[in-house]
Specification:
The protein is α+β, with helices and mostly antiparallel strands and 425 residues long. It has three domains: 189 residues, no CATH class; 112 residues, Nucleoside Triphosphate Pyrophosphohydrolase, CATH 3.90.79.10; 37 residues. The chain is 27% helix and 23% strand. It is built from nine helices and 15 strands. β10 and β11 form a beta hairpin. The model has no long low-confidence stretch (mean pLDDT 88).
């Protein structure tokens, strides 16, 4: 039997959501001068989200709308009304004022504590463009930014804004460009993207989700604010004018050392296919939340103190009762729902051994499928398309049904206790 590891290790595909086309210019994130200059560039484009839902655009004509729906990229002049007053980075205590030199510390680098968090995604350079080192941005930043060749990209989630503010932006775009705008279902939006858009979208959605959710300091519970163009968060108690007056209050622990909760989080997940000894069968499972005929590769989060290979073996056993060996890396894929890294593996298993899904009860079913069965699905005219909008609606309907059932059960218990009060003692 040929080992999976004999597979050409030099072959590594660029998976959907990976292969980012952007130069992220990470060394320039602490520079409020750079960020304030690049955000107002006429070439800058924005991806907007609303509680994780991407903004989509399509022609006003209903006949064309569905087939030509795509991600909306907005210029800065359209987005300015929702950003608040400038400066947008390096903000002082008062709106409209830049930090004084004496207030610039590690806790205020490119600080944005006024207004919703904004994420600088990077620069899509032209073939002749080249990123400049940090030293080039010490003086005359605006003229240097104007010489940058390419398109800077930003992202923002407007979920915390008033509807009137959001509607004002959308109506302006619809009127100027004669398009229809709508907030799309995040997973369904995948089908509208090419490789370039998918990679930009993956970075954007993961980053705005982290900023949107992480509103309070994990060290002390105080509100947080954005730094480094959305790539770092800091506790408001660390601001030069922060409130630390409470008697007996300890300093926020985030002010010292390197803390993982102040930087973006990526959660590693193993996703794996077990192959039988013939190389003609693979094991797939159906999660309890999936539609009736939807089977997929098994997957699970890495646990502390585990190598990727350990997690593959553990998850295969816990979910399907299958022992695997010869665990071999295939490739990885960012997964922006909300911010995972799917690390793909192959493994060998014995297809003659029984399958059991009663260990952790995560799967409704698991089966071995032949190569021919898999190819017949992939070759089908509808492929493996899944309507995530309908899937989400069904999920919500199931949740409502479960909630109603629980309420009825609780009501029955209350009635029984009223009729027989001694039983509750």
């Amino acid at each position: 039997m040929q080992s999976i590891s004999d597979h050409d290790s030099a072959y590594r595909p660029t998976n959907f959501f990976s292969g980012s086309p952007l130069n992220r210019l990470s060394w320039l994130r602490p520079s409020h001068k750079f960020l304030n200059a690049v955000i107002t560039s006429p070439n800058t484009r924005w991806l907007l989200f609303k509680a994780g839902q991407p903004l989509l655009t399509s022609p006003q004509s209903t006949a064309e709308a569905k087939s030509t729906k795509k991600l909306a990229y907005l210029p800065t002049r359209i987005v300015l009304p929702i950003l608040g007053p400038s400066p947008y980075f390096g903000q002082s205590q008062k709106p409209g004022e830049l930090l004084s030199q004496s207030d610039i510390t590690q806790s205020t680098e490119a600080a944005r504590h006024l207004g919703i968090p904004v994420v600088f995604l990077g620069l899509h350079e032209t073939g002749t463009g080249s990123a400049l080192p940090e030293t080039e941005f010490k003086e005359d930043v605006e003229s240097i930014v104007n010489k940058l060749e390419g398109t800077p990209y930003f992202a923002v989630d407007v979920g915390d804004l008033e509807e009137s503010q959001i509607d004002g932006v959308l109506k302006t775009v619809e009127k100027e460009e004669n398009v229809k705008l709508e907030w799309g279902e995040p997973r369904s939006a995948m089908g509208l993207m090419d490789g370039f858009e998918a990679a930009v979208y993956a970075e954007a959605r993961s980053m705005v989700d982290w900023n949107f959710r992480s509103k309070f300091c994990a060290g002390c519970g105080a509100p947080q604010y954005s730094m480094w163009g959305g790539w770092k968060l800091s506790c408001t108690r660390l601001l030069p004018w922060g409130d630390n007056s409470s008697e007996g209050r300890k300093p926020c622990p985030s002010g010292k050392g390197l803390n993982n909760y102040t930087h973006p989080r990526t959660d590693a997940v193993v996703i794996m296919i077990a192959i039988d000894h013939t190389g003609e069968k693979i094991l797939l499972g159906r999660n309890r939340k999936f539609p009736l005929k939807f089977y997929s590769a098994l997957a699970g989060f890495i646990e502390p103190g585990e190598a990727f290979e350990d997690a593959v073996k553990r998850e295969m056993w816990e979910e399907a009762g299958v022992r695997v060996w010869d665990v071999t890396y295939h490739s990885a894929q960012p997964w922006p729902y909300p911010a995972n890294l799917m690390v793909g593996y192959y493994a060998r298993a014995d297809s003659t051994k029984p399958i059991r899904t009663d260990l952790d009860n995560e799967l409704m079913d698991a089966k071995w499928y032949t190569r021919g069965e898999i190819l017949s699905v992939l070759d089908h005219q509808t492929g493996t398309k899944l309507d995530f909008k309908r899937f989400a609606q069904k999920e919500k309907a199931d949740e409502r049904e479960q909630s109603a059932s629980l309420q009825k059960q609780q009501e029955r218990w209350r009635q029984q206790l009223q009729q027989n009060p001694g039983e509750g003692a």
